[in-house]
Design brief:
Chain lengths: 328, 298
C-alpha cells in the first residue's frame, strides 16, 4: 500500500476506527467506571461534532454550546417527567427545541461582527439560559434540579445497565458521525468552508451568508440538544450548575485538542477530554495544574490537534519504509 | 421623590462597581489596541493581586495605613508580572496559530493559575480586611457607602494616571504609535517587544488594581476573577473593543444598567437583563457603542 493510500485511509476511516476501538472497551474491561467515563465521552463527542460544524467548518467562534445542551436536557426532562412523553419522542423534540434556539441566537449573531463580538453574544446567550434555569422555579425546579427522569425503553425492555447505556449512547454517536461526514462532504459543507475561508468571495459566488451561518448554528444547536437529552436520561437527575460557561469552554477545547475542522479530530478530542482528567487523578492535588499545562502545551505545539500526531507518524514511518525499499 | 432618591443611590452603586468593570475593560482594550491579542485569562491576573496583597499584609502583621498601601502596590506589581508571564508563555506562542488557539491557550493558563492559587491559599476563600469604611453616610438626602466612593475615586485617579502616561511620556507615545499602526511604528524604530511587554504590564496592573479594589467587597477566592473578567470583557466589547474611552464608558454603563435592573426589575434576573441589553445594543451597533475604527476593529 502506498503512503498516499495509507494517508487517505487514515483520514477517511479513522473516525470509524476510533469508534470501533472505543466500543470494544466494555467487552474487554468490565469495570463500570470505565463505561461511565466512556458514556460521558460519547456525549462529549456529539457536542464536539456540533461545535466542529459551526466553528471548525463554518469558522464562527461560538462559546455557548452549554446553553443548547441545557435546552435539550430540560426539554426532554420536563416532557418525560411532567407529561409522561416517551424517550423516543422527547429526543427529537429536544433537538428541535435547541435548533429553534439556535435560529434565535444565529440571527443576531449575524448582525454583529465576528471575533470577540460573536464570542460575547454566544457567551451571553448561555449565561441567560443558566439564569433562567436557576430562577424559573415553576418550570425547571430551580437549583434543586429535576429528579427521576425515566430510562428509555426499547420494545418494552428498559435500558438500565451501564453496558446497555454505553451501546445506546454510541448508537447515537455513530449516527451523528455518519450525519456529520455526509454533511461536510455535501454542497452545504463546502459552502460552510467557503464562508469560513472568505465571506467576500463566498458571497461573490452566490453563497447566501445569512442562510449558511444560521444553518450552521441550527445544526450545531440540534446536536447539542440531542446530547443534552441523552445526558438527562442517563444521569436521571439534572441541575443548572452543569450547564455553565466552563462546559462551553470545554467543548471548544475538545475540537482544538482533537484537531479542528476534522470529524475524527472531534471524536478524539471528546473522548480525550473525558478520559484525561480521570487519568490525571494520579497526580493528586496537582491534577488540575498538570491538566492546565497539558492544554497550554497542546495548543502551542499541536495546532492541528492530537489527530495530526497520527498523520505525522504515518508520514514519518511511510518515509522510512519507502527509503528502505528504494535502497538497493 | 422617594424613587428619585433610590434612583440616585442605585446609579451611584452602579458607578462604583462600573468603575471596577471599566478598569478591567481598559485592560482588555489596551491589550487589543496595542498588541492585537485578547487575554482571556485576565480574571486570573485580576485574582492574583488581592492574594499577593493579602499575603504581604499578613506578613507585615500590621493593619496600619502604610502597610495597606505597600500591600496594594505589591499586589498590583505581582499582577503585572503574572500578566507578562501569561503573555510570554501562552498568548504570544498561540497567537501565531489564530484567535481560537489564544482562547484555548488562555483557558489552559487560567486553569493553571487558579489551581496554583488553590494549592497555595486553599479553595475556600479569605476575607480581605476592609481598609475603607462600609458604614453608609448621609450626603443630602442620599445614603452612600464611603467604600464605593473611594473605589470610584481611586479608579478615576488610575485612569487619569494612565492618560497622562500615554499622552505625556515618551514611552507612552511609543505605545500609542504601536497601537495606531504597528508596522509603521516598527519602521520608526519603536521596539515591538518593548511596547508589547509594557502594554501588557500596564494593562495587567490595571486589572490587578481592580482586583484589590473589589476584594474588600467580596471574599477573595481563586475563582473570583472569572465573573469579573467576563463582565470587563463585556464592557470592553460594549464600548467598542480596542477603544480606550469606550472601555471606560462601557464599564460604567454596564455597572449602572446592572444595578438599575436589579433595583427596578428583579435582582434574580440581574445578570440576564444585562446580557439581553448587551445583545440589543450590539444588534443596533455591531461594532460597539464607540466603534474603534477600521484599523483597530476586533
Amino acid at each position: 500500500m502506498t503512503l498516499k493510500a495509507t494517508h487517505a485511509l487514515y483520514t477517511n476511516y479513522c473516525s470509524y476506527c476510533f469508534l470501533a476501538v472505543i466500543m470494544v472497551v466494555p467487552l474487554v474491561f468490565t469495570n463500570p467506571y470505565f463505561s461511565h467515563i466512556l458514556i460521558l465521552g460519547g456525549i462529549y463527542i456529539i457536542l464536539a461534532l456540533g461545535q466542529n460544524i459551526v466553528t471548525g467548518y463554518c469558522g464562527q467562534i461560538h462559546l455557548g454550546m452549554a446553553g443548547f445542551y441545557a435546552i435539550g436536557s430540560y426539554t426532554s426532562a420536563i416532557l418525560c417527567t411532567r407529561l409522561g412523553v416517551s424517550f423516543w419522542l422527547a429526543l427529537p423534540l429536544s433537538a428541535a427545541a435547541a435548533a429553534i434556539a439556535g435560529i434565535v441566537v444565529g440571527l443576531p449573531a449575524l448582525k454583529v461582527r465576528g471575533g470577540v463580538y460573536l464570542v460575547l453574544v454566544t457567551v451571553s446567550f448561555a449565561g441567560i439560559i443558566q439564569v433562567i434555569l436557576n430562577q424559573w422555579v415553576s418550570l425547571t425546579k430551580g437549583p434543586m434540579g429535576i429528579v427521576g427522569i425515566p430510562a428509555p425503553r426499547i420494545a418494552g425492555f428498559e435500558i438500565s445497565s451501564l453496558v446497555q447505556w454505553f451501546y445506546l449512547t454510541y448508537f447515537f454517536v455513530v449516527l451523528v458521525t455518519l450525519f456529520s461526514t455526509r454533511l461536510v462532504h455535501s454542497r452545504i459543507g463546502r459552502s460552510f468552508v467557503a464562508v469560513r475561508e472568505s465571506e467576500t468571495s463566498a458571497q461573490s459566488i452566490g453563497i447566501n451568508l445569512a442562510f449558511y451561518k444560521v444553518l450552521a448554528f441550527l445544526i450545531s444547536a440540534a446536536l447539542a440538544g440531542l446530547a443534552g437529552a441523552i445526558y438527562a436520561h442517563y444521569m436521571t437527575t439534572i441541575s443548572p450548575d452543569v450547564y455553565g460557561f466552563n462546559l462551553s469552554v470545554l467543548v471548544l477545547m475538545m475540537i482544538v485538542v482533537g484537531g479542528i475542522s476534522s470529524i475524527p479530530g472531534s471524536i478524539l478530542g471528546g473522548v480525550t477530554l473525558a478520559i484525561v482528567p480521570e487519568l490525571l487523578r494520579a497526580f493528586g492535588s496537582f491534577q488540575m495544574i498538570v491538566y492546565g499545562l497539558g492544554i497550554i502545551l497542546s495548543t502551542i505545539f499541536l495546532p492541528s490537534g492530537l489527530l495530526a500526531l497520527g498523520v505525522n507518524s504515518i508520514q514519518f514511518f511511510g518515509n522510512k519504509l519507502s527509503q528502505k525499499t528504494s535502497a538497493p | 421623590m422617594d424613587h428619585a432618591v433610590t434612583l440616585v443611590e442605585l446609579v451611584m452603586g452602579g458607578l462604583a462597581i462600573g468603575s471596577v468593570y471599566s478598569l478591567v475593560a481598559l485592560a482588555h482594550s489596551l491589550i487589543w489596541s496595542g498588541v492585537r491579542v485578547v487575554n482571556f485569562a485576565q480574571g486570573e491576573v485580576f485574582m492574583s493581586a488581592p492574594f499577593i496583597a493579602l499575603t504581604v499584609l499578613m506578613g507585615s502583621n500590621l493593619l496600619s495605613k502604610q502597610s495597606f498601601v505597600i500591600s496594594i502596590l505589591a499586589g498590583v506589581g505581582a499582577a503585572s508580572l503574572v500578566g507578562l508571564a501569561l503573555y510570554l508563555g501562552v498568548i504570544a506562542p498561540t497567537a501565531k496559530h489564530g484567535f481560537l488557539y489564544v482562547i484555548a491557550g488562555c483557558v489552559g493558563g487560567s486553569v493553571l493559575i487558579q489551581n496554583i492559587a488553590i494549592l497555595i491559599w486553599g479553595s475556600t476563600g479569605v476575607q480581605f480586611p476592609s481598609f475603607l469604611s462600609t458604614e453608609p453616610i448621609k450626603i443630602g438626602p442620599f445614603l452612600l457607602v464611603p467604600q464605593d466612593l473611594w473605589i470610584m475615586a481611586i479608579s478615576l485617579v488610575a485612569m487619569g494616571a494612565l492618560y497622562l502616561f500615554l499622552a505625556k511620556t515618551r514611552i507612552g507615545t511609543a505605545m500609542r504609535a504601536a497601537a495606531q499602526n504597528r508596522s509603521v511604528a516598527g519602521l520608526m524604530g519603536i521596539s515591538h517587544s518593548l511596547t508589547d511587554s509594557l502594554t501588557i504590564m500596564v494593562a495587567s496592573s490595571l486589572a490587578g488594581l481592580a482586583g484589590v479594589l473589589l476584594a474588600p467587597k467580596f471574599y477573595v477566592t481563586p475563582q473570583m476573577g472569572t465573573i469579573i473578567s467576563s463582565k470587563g470583557f463585556s464592557a470592553a466589547v460594549l464600548g467598542g473593543f480596542g477603544n480606550i474611552p469606550g472601555a471606560v464608558i462601557g464599564g460604567l454603563l454596564l455597572g449602572v444598567l446592572e444595578n438599575l435592573s436589579a433595583g427596578f426589575i428583579s435582582s434574580e434576573y440581574k445578570d440576564a437583563t444585562a446580557f439581553i441589553l448587551m445583545i440589543f445594543i450590539l444588534m443596533a451597533r455591531p461594532g460597539g457603542i464607540f466603534d474603534a475604527g477600521k484599523g483597530r476593529r476586533a
